[in-house]
Amino acid sequence: MKFSGSARRVELKNNQGRKIVGLIDLPKNQGRSPVVVICHGFTGYKEEIHLKSLAQTLAKNGIAAMRFDFTNERGESDGTIEDINFSQELADLKSVIDFISYQGFIDPARIGLAGHSMGGQVALTYGPTDPRIKVLADLAGVAYRGAQDTELEKKLRGRADHFQKNGFLFIWGYKIKFDFYTDLLKHDTLSQVKKISIPTIIVHGRTDRIVPLKHSQTVYEILREPKRLVVIDGMPHTWRQPIHYKKVNPLVAEWFKKYL
């Protein structure tokens, strides 16, 4: 399976008037299409192969897909990564959904949401707040605030004194402000998960060392039906390799085709 098609590039403004850049993969069918908005993870960006391959698989299944760069991340959207902020990512997502719902080629009654890693946490947190979201996909998402077992949390806590004293920390080569951590702790994702009443699929790699599998297992236990948890043997935190995206993408596309 090849993923070399072109996507439509779009720009919009968030609630602060800052630029958000996105890519829309459209199906070949005419008329208004259902759409899935895809959220990247911490220090991610819209062109990552696992997100691109998912978007194109959705399009091949008759579902439009919009992947975008959060502000204050690595991609084309405004801001620098040292100002990354979870609350702002929630606001960015609302701006994206507002934008896509008004496009003439989209059916605004059929909007789905997918997120990977911290993007999964964004999706789980935001999903129950917006009645326009009809279906969810949580892809190796972080489940609970202050989780001490994620790779990111270990780095934050391991140098907590330095982080708080200096107001910043270098994580994976990126300068991150302490405000990111204090803001993140304000959000209780599991409390939001309890409010989710729409079909939700969860996919997680069994060998994920960034976000442990138990995050997805916890979310699954809390969710109401219809729900599904799929654990992919041998898959790490992302599904970049063909052996993995050939498993993950059809599963996710099938879920959205069924419920969206």
UniProtKB/TrEMBL annotation:
Which Gene3D superfamilies does this entry report, sorted A to Z? alpha/beta hydrolase
What terms describe the molecular function in GO for this protein? carboxylic ester hydrolase activity
InterPro entries associated with the record:
AB_hydrolase_fold (IPR029058), FrsA_esterase (IPR050261), Hydrolase_4 (IPR022742)
Q: Which Pfam families match?
A: Hydrolase_4
The domain of life is Bacteria
Keywords noted in UniProt: Hydrolase
- Give all residue intervals belonging to the Serine aminopeptidase S33 domain: 35-135, 183-238
Q: Which PANTHER family match?
A: DIENELACTONE HYDROLASE DOMAIN-CONTAINING PROTEIN-RELATED, POLYKETIDE TRANSFERASE AF380
UniProt protein name: Serine aminopeptidase S33 domain-containing protein
Q: What is the organism field in this record?
A: Candidatus Buchananbacteria bacterium RIFCSPHIGHO2_01_FULL_44_11
